[in-house]
Write a structure and sequence with these properties.
The chain has 156 residues and is an all-alpha fold. It contains five helices and no strands.
C-alpha cells in the first residue's frame, strides 16, 4: 500500500469547527470594521448595519461606508482562510458557506430574503475577493519549496 501525500480522512468535527471559526472571524471583524467606520462619521452602531440589506447602498454616506467595511472584512476573512483553513481547494467552499449563513441570518433578521440589488452586488464582490485572495495566499504557501537539508557528506 503506497502512502499518499496529504491523504484526507473525513472528519466532520474538524469541518464543523472550521465553519464555526470562520463565522466567528466574519462577524467579529465585520463588527470591528463597522465600529471603525462608525467612529469616523459618528453614527450609532446597530445590528441593522450587519443584517439589514437596506443599509447597504450607494445613495447615503453610511451605506457607502458600510459597503467599504464589508469589502475590508472580506480581505480580513481571506487572511482567516489562510491561517486556519490552509487549503486552496477549500477556500471557495468555506467562503460560500460563510456568506450562505450570512444570507440566512439576514433572511431571519428581516423576515424575508434580501431584495436590494446593492446587497447582492456587495456580497458577490466580497465572496469573490475572499475566495480569490484566500486561495492565492493558500496556494502560495502550498507551493513553497520544501527545504532539503544538505548536511555534511561523509567520506566513506
Amino acid at each position: 500500500m503506497a502512502s499518499h501525500f496529504r491523504s484526507y480522512i473525513w472528519d466532520p468535527v474538524l469541518i464543523v469547527s472550521q465553519i464555526v471559526l470562520m463565522q466567528c472571524i466574519y462577524y467579529s471583524f465585520l463588527g470591528l470594521w463597522l465600529a471603525g467606520v462608525d467612529s469616523l462619521v459618528q453614527t450609532s452602531r446597530s445590528l441593522d448595519q450587519i443584517f439589514s440589506y437596506e443599509i447597504l447602498g450607494f445613495a447615503t454616506m453610511q451605506g457607502r461606508l458600510s459597503m467599504m467595511a464589508f469589502i475590508l472584512n472580506s480581505l480580513t476573512c481571506a487572511l482567516g482562510l489562510w491561517f486556519f483553513i490552509r487549503r486552496g481547494k477549500q477556500c471557495l467552499d468555506f467562503t460560500v458557506t460563510v456568506h450562505f449563513f450570512h444570507m440566512i441570518g439576514c433572511w431571519i433578521y428581516n423576515a424575508h430574503i434580501p431584495s436590494a440589488l446593492s446587497w447582492w452586488l456587495v456580497n458577490v464582490a466580497c465572496m469573490a475577493l475572499m475566495a480569490v485572495i484566500g486561495e492565492y495566499l493558500c496556494m502560495r504557501t502550498e507551493l513553497r519549496a520544501i527545504p532539503v537539508n544538505s548536511g555534511p557528506k561523509s567520506n566513506l
